[in-house]
Write a structure and sequence with these properties.
There is one protein chain. The chain folds into two domains: about 5-15 and about 85-215, HAD superfamily/HAD-like (Rossmann fold), CATH 3.40.50.1000; about 15-80, Putative phosphatase, domain 2 (DNA polymerase, domain 1). Helix content is about 45%, strand content about 15%. The protein has ten helices and eight strands. It has helices spanning about 15-30, 40, 50-55, 65-80, 90-100, 115-125, 145-155, 170-180, 195, 210-215; strands at about 5, 15, 85-90, 105-115, 130-135, 165, 180-185, 205. Strand 4 (about 105-115), helix 6 and strand 5 (about 130-135) form a beta-alpha-beta unit. The radius of gyration is 17 Å and the shape is globular.
């Protein structure tokens, strides 16, 4: 059994795609740019808000000035509306409660900016103790850079061989590899299973029940 489980947030613990899409489309509309469907945003998320908005903009309008303008619109709107339609995936809260009951350490490692990461974790998982809740922080490279894993391991003070990183994207699988820890891909998130398979994680699960069995019975 692993002593520490590091979870990605969006697409792994929480289904946040509708709120991300709504905030992005709000910012696009304010600047008179075309909007996108929620389905389109599945391929844009996962590498931070700046990259999301860059991909949402028309290709000819991705200059630094426009990107700053759209970020300035997105962030205040998302800060207010980031819990409008988001929710934990079914069974996730129970899984976290079971892991906590077993004394397994847990942490969150996200590419969402830090303030929103902390807010959503506190809002949706108020009874769960995470040893660290890290989002994208000023001056620290985002995932797949391994800095976020290294910071969590400093707090956990355990060997990398006892760590499992759980996420829904290739970026997550790369992060685990760069950090020297085992990985588990979940296919219910924002990326298709084939995106996970190409990174050869140690495990891939297709349901929260499978993840429960892996983490608590493996």
């Amino acid at each position: 059994m692993n002593d520490l489980i590091i979870f990605d947030l969006d697409g792994t613990l929480l289904d946040t795609i509708a709120d991300l899409a709504n905030a992005s489309n709000y910012a696009l509309r304010e600047l008179d740019f075309p909007t996108h469907s929620v389905k389109d945003y599945h391929q844009m998320v996962g590498n931070g808000i700046t990259n999301l908005l860059k991909l949402a903009l028309p290709q000819d309008n991705r200059d630094d000035k426009t990107l700053q303008e759209i970020c300035n619109l997105f962030v205040p709107y998302y800060n207010i509306h980031n819990a409008d339609a988001s929710a934990p995936y079914p069974g996730i809260v129970h899984l976290l409660e079971q892991l906590q009951h077993k004394g397994i350490q847990m942490a969150v490692a996200s590419n969402k900016y830090q303030a929103a990461t902390e807010k959503l974790v506190a809002h949706y998982f108020p009874t769960i103790h995470f040893i660290a809740v890290f989002g994208q922080r000023e001056g620290i490279a985002p995932k797949p850079d391994a800095h976020i894993i290294e910071d969590i391991l400093k707090i956990a003070k355990i060997d990398k061989s006892k760590v499992l990183y759980v996420g829904d994207s290739g970026i997550d699988m790369q992060t685990a590899k760069n950090g020297g820890v085992a990985s588990c891909g979940v296919s219910w998130g924002f990326r298709p299973r084939m995106d996970l398979e190409q990174y050869h994680p140690e495990f891939i699960v297709d349901s929260v029940e499978e993840l429960h069995n892996l983490l608590l019975k493996h």
